[in-house]
Structures are given as C-alpha cells and as structure tokens.
Amino acid sequence: MADQHIPTSADVGNMYDQSTDLLSEVMGGNIHLGYWRDDDDDSSVEEATDTLTDMVAERLALSAGHRVLDIGCGSGKPATRIAGKWSVHVTGVTISAQQVEVAGALPEVGEGNGQVAFRRADGMALPFDEARFDRVYAIESFLHMSDRATAVAEAARVLRPGGLLVVANPYQHGELSPREAQIVADNRRLFQIPPIGDAEEYTAHMVKAGLEIVETLDIGENVRRSHTLAAEVIRRTKDTADGAFSEELSEAADIIERFGDLPQIGYGLIAARRP
C-alpha cells in the first residue's frame, strides 16, 4: 500500500525547528541541495549550494530595486546572497520559528536594496497583498506543502504582472519497485514531505494559477552528489552524539543516501511569468 503520510504545516515547522542548525552545517550554510557541473567539478558543498542559489536568481532576471519574496527562506543565506549580488530587497518567509530567529539575526536585515527581512508565515496562506512583489522564488519549499496548488496560486497572487516565479524542487519520474517505494517513504517521513509528485504537477499548478511557463530544466544528475556528501557529514556528526540520537543520525544518513541514489528522483528548475 502506498504511503499516504501528509504532514501538516506544524509538522514541517517542528521538523525544521529541530534540524535547521544541523542541516545548515551539512549544506554549507544553506538548507538546499548543491549543483555540480560534472563529475570533475570539485566545488565544495557551500560553493555548490551557492551555485544553485545563483541559478535560481539568474532565472528571476533581477534588476536593482526589485522587491523579491523567498518562500521557505531556511537559514536566510540564499536571501542575503541574492539581495547583495543583485541589489534587491528580499523578504523571506518560513513556517519555522527557529529559522526566523536564525535568519532574523543576520546583519543584512533592513529595508533597503541589498537587505533582507524575515517573518514567520505559511506559504499556503501568504500574509501579503496581491501583486506585492516583482519576483518570487521557492527553493525546495513547495516540496513540503500538502496543498501545492494553493501554494502556487498564492505565489502567483502576490506576484506583479510581468513578474517571474522560479521554483526549484526534487520530483519523481518513473515507476518504483516496492523496495524503492519504501526508500521514498522513509525520506518523506524524515523530512515531512507529502507524496513527491512529478514535474508536470508543478507546471500544471502554474498554468492553472494563470502563469505562463518560461523554462523547465532537469538538473537531477547535477545535484545527486548532495545526498552522498550530506550523509557523510551526518555520519561524522553522529560519532560525537550520545546514545539514541547517534542511532537516529545514523539512520537518517542511510535514508538520505539511499534516496539520492534512486534514478527516478529528478530535480527541476521551473520558471514562469505572470502575464
């Protein structure tokens, strides 16, 4: 029987309250996967995760002075990087109180270009007026949302006409064997993820929300190394942990690595425009 686990927003928030510090350490200050050009690319995890941030930002076609929304801002590092490099203001929202505290302590917090602001909010019910932002992006956050159609519609609602939405997310393609389905189910429970869905699900939600698809790009093979490297760091961390927590970390590392090895797990960058 398929795993029907559907996390609530509170479940996702609690998970990140507990894991943000560890995940940030594992992923070089970011809390998303990294991009490597090819097998010969020797970028560090921090460099690779920053590269993925830049790939999202490049598809936003930013200009100085733009007001940008980051849905699922994590540690705040992507927002500060984008704000600083492109001289825009980024507002980040997250369901995690811990992430708001961490991101809100960054020295870049402010209201001007090159600065950032953070608040606690649910991506499925954004607390902003219609057409508030010039650009919107979501890096691996729609993945957690139980009603992705509503999340995409909310992103489209707060986007100004002519504005761009860029989404970066893992997705599933192809059938899974019972063993592979169990690996996916284990990863979903670890990270509080509803059924993963495929790339067509995201594009269909965007079209339904009135957006025009600009680009779809699969970079699944370029991010796959992230899982192996994350598992290695977690295994080193568990060696200094105590008792049951050490066992939990060991199990988490195994789940992450097995999930990353599945060829049916891709990763998409999707850009869309509000007419």
Gap between N and C termini, in Å? Answer: 42 Å
What general form does the structure show? Answer: globular
Helix content: 40-55%
Secondary-structure-based class equals alpha/beta
The ordered H/E elements are HHEHEHEEHEHHEHHHE
The number of helical elements comes to 10
Radius of gyration: 18 Å
The mean pLDDT is 95
Beta-strand percentage?
15-25%
Extract low-pLDDT stretches.
Answer: none
Number of strands: 7
Main sheet specs: 7 strands, mixed
Strand order of the largest sheet: 3-2-1-4-5-7-6
Could you describe the 3D structure shown?
This protein is an alpha/beta fold and 275 residues long. It is 44% helix and 19% strand. The chain has ten helices and seven strands. The chain has helices at 9-26, 45-59, 77-86, 97-104, 148-157, 178-191, 199-208, 220-223, 225-238, 243-260, and strands at residues 67-71, 89-94, 116-120, 133-139, 159-172, 212-218, 265-273. Strand 2 (89-94), helix 4 (97-104) and strand 3 (116-120) form a beta-alpha-beta unit. Helix 5 (148-157) crosses helix 7 (199-208) and helix 6 packs across helix 10 (243-260). The protein is globular and about 50 Å long. The relative contact order is 0.15.
Provide a compact summary of the structure:
Helices cover 44% and strands 19% of the residues.
Task: Summarize the helices and strands and which ones pair or pack.
Elements: H1 9-26, H2 45-59, E1 67-71, H3 77-86, E2 89-94, H4 97-104, E3 116-120, E4 133-139, H5 148-157, E5 159-172, H6 178-191, H7 199-208, E6 212-218, H8 220-223, H9 225-238, H10 243-260, E7 265-273
Helix pairs in contact: 5-7, 6-10, 9-10
